[in-house]
Amino acid sequence: QVQLVESGGGLVQPGGSLRLSCSASESIYSATIMGWARQAPGKQREMVAQIIRGHNTNYADSVKGRFTISEDTAKNTVYLQMNNLKPEDTAVYYCYLQFSAPYWGKGTLVTVSS
Known about the structure:
Shape: globular
Structural class: mainly beta
Number of helices: 0
Radius of gyration: 13 Å
């Protein structure tokens, strides 16, 4: 059972930046997909960014040019750098990794407000 723990959420003003971290209990080297999703109040969970190992990196249209997903296999950590944050980015952010099965973290809250 892979455990994922997100961190780095919080309150930030519009235009600000945050970096989310997702720490895995096991090596992420063999994960085939690594990603971040978010769920805003009253809305469905949506993919924000994901790395399909050996293929490509995808972003939701709403975050292209502002968010960047990356990984550090030595630290078993996946990051989401979020710049130029907007109020509509307010949500609980979840990381997920796909091994033989999908694993999800419990989420970290990001609030963008002045």
